[in-house]
Predict the 3D structure of the following.
Amino acid sequence: MPDTVVVVGAGLTGLACAASLPGRIRPVVVDRIPVPGGVHGWDTDETRSAEAAARSRGAILHLGETATRWDGEELLVMGQDGVRRIPARALVVAAGSRPLGRAELGLAGPRPAGILAATVACHLSETGLLAGRRPAVVGGGDWAARAVAELLHAGAEHIQVVTPDGVLRRFPESPALTVRTATPVAVEGGPRVSALRLQGGERVECDALVLAHGLVPLRNVDGAVWEGARTVYAQPADDPATVSAARQAGAAAAAEVEQMLDAA
Amino acid sequence: MRDVVVIGGGVVGCAVAWRLSSTAARVTLIEAAHDLCEGASKGNTGIATSGGDCHPGTLELELVRRSSPGWEALCARLDTPFHRIGTLAVALTEEDEHRLPELLRDAEQTGAAAEIVTGDQARALEPLISEEARAALHFPDDGIIDSIRLTIGYAELAARNGVEVLRGAPVHSIEREGDRIVAVTAGDRRIATRSVVNAAGVEADTISRLAGGEPFRTWPRQGQYWLLDRELGGRFRKVVGGVPTPVTRGIYCVPTTNRSLLLGPTADDREDPDDRAVSRDVLEHVLEAARRLVPAIRREHAIKTFAANRPASDTTYRLEADGWRPNLIHAAGIRSTGVSGSPAIAEQVHELLAEAGAPVLDEHPRALAALEPLPRLLHHPRPEELFAADRRYGQVVCACEQVTAAEIAGAFAMALPPRSVDGLRKRTRATGGRCQGAVCLAGVSFLCSLHTATAPWLLAQSEPTATLGVGPADA
């Protein structure tokens, strides 16, 4: 029976890691989303070939299941078919990233409704919700560009993008879009958000605020949030996210796992 | 006609409603906000003090001491997490250390268990505290409690026992005949009643004024807090605070019952009870103070910052019949021990109502004594059993707090179900974890939509007008 290594996250990084693990290891990949690909999307050639490479390496994929606890020896996974306990020699966290939250951005002020993470704003827009007619978006990278596109598509009339670190990638061309570099410091409004206050005191009026700045690794597995036992983290913080960075991070994590197991 | 109208759906009002719900009295509980537990009862440290930091000879101390021994039994009945872990008030300076014997003498007068321990003993009790700690005052009987689950638990059990609960019903007027109150108009309802309990927290002075009662003043005292990740909070064994000074009790590091960590509170008097803005400078000060006590605390552990208002007043613990309105019972000026004293406060209000002639002495023979617990996946020792009982435990909706579709369905099946995403968070913790909803808010919203038959964009995040969206997307 070969040693098992569990990879949490079936994005390109997790799949590349599974495909790169040495032959004496059986990779098991878990993802809470029912399709592979992560932020790169499931319906792409890169995702199809990454999944095929992982499967040809013998990887077992448990999709639509949530990894919840890791104690260094066993991963507890919850899914629609029941509870799965996966004994493993190591855990690889390849769970992707999310934009900074409000506290992480250090935004002062009250807690009105209408402040959404870009991840949520995109998801809600895709499913038929208009988050704001005149939303403000904080950020200048992937998530900001995605949020802008989704908000425009959903029917936003004007979007003001405020990016603390400049523009990292191209935004959609639209007269309904203004982009500026500035540091947001506080929110105003209640019960719904009414403005974003910038350093220097200027106010950006808005009826929704989408937080899309920066990337924080998503860490949801208890016991593996910071420095888990027998845990390797593969969460590239490249913005824009690229296929090559994901592959590299996956391969590097596989090498790190191998070293860890050799040392043990 | 009601026998008692309780004004205020915070921990005090809900505890009173719970106490009265086992009697034959016909009771209505009214709350101005869209949900219960929207004021100080949701924004506090979650410490159930054993009284060692209260002033000897006060009603506050008496009620806290009467409440303290019963927490384990009561919380089991109310499906509320409680752990008696104790508090360490840590002396970091020589000056602090010299004050400990005097504080111990004060504490001994309260009747609460207290002892002085050396720095090494303190670090043995709580290895996370600073090497600088010279000594500490230990209160072993202090506990930590989920004050939101407690408040909602009181109200839920009250509702199941027949108490009528009106949410989103601000009091507009209070009618009198002679010196007695005869009716309360709240929201769109006029409620004829034989007596009224004023448990309106920060707004208690307004209620007394509307009733033509004795004048007193209440105002918001704001506290700001950090919420830190449970990977740090789960390592705490004790509540850790500084040595209180005559001016302030200082900043605490409080592990919560869901293993996250609270830092706070500050104390800053305000005018507007809806002012819940946080400020960067204040929060930096809190973080610094906490790090002096526990150096392992890092900014990266932060999940959330927030401000909450607790009621300050010119008279503390005004628990009495109004001098001018004999059928108005005040439960006001409960400053920062509302949670810690709530069971005994409720008992006291019950006695005051009986003295005022309300029919609260006959116990209801079929009253439920306990809520059916709703099991949670997070930290559950046998998740297989949960799944066997309800397959929806397999569907984790909020990944950070590991809240499943079964728990969300359970919240919506309550007698007092959530009316907003915030309300669901208060009952289940969904969206309240380290990603603050960045992963799950969409999924959580869809489940709220399904359970309430509301379009997602119309779903309330908090108050009914605070909707998730501004409209449907363009087709």
Observations:
- The helical segments of chain A are 12-20, 45-56, 102-105, 118-126, 142-154, 243-263.
